[in-house]
Amino acid sequence: MEKKNIHVVGAVIIKDNKVLCAQRGQTKTLAYKWEFPGGKIEQGETPKEALKREIVEEMKCNIEVGNQVDHTVYEYDFGIVHLTTYYCTLLEGEPVLTEHISIKWLPKQDLQMLDWAPADIPAVEKLANK
Length: 130
What we know:
alpha+beta
């Protein structure tokens, strides 16, 4: 059976030189893995529109979406994830937990200490080496 392609976006939110990292809950696929918050691109949305909407829904805050960090294609057992990450800045609000069980603000050089979802790792490595 052909795997489905899943197009998702992730927000690399930077504040005071620290990056927001979000931990997935136990009921999610990739339970307890860390990721950049975001989600699926709905039909008719641009990646940046999808990211703004997802962050409002997931974290109850508004962001400005900037330049692309990375684009990764990773094949999981449940499908092929096409993840595009973008640099983002908080415009208003502080991230709150609605879907994640934990969030951390880490300096770029410390990102690799966390157990990241595989699709997020290339972006983490890029950030850590900046």
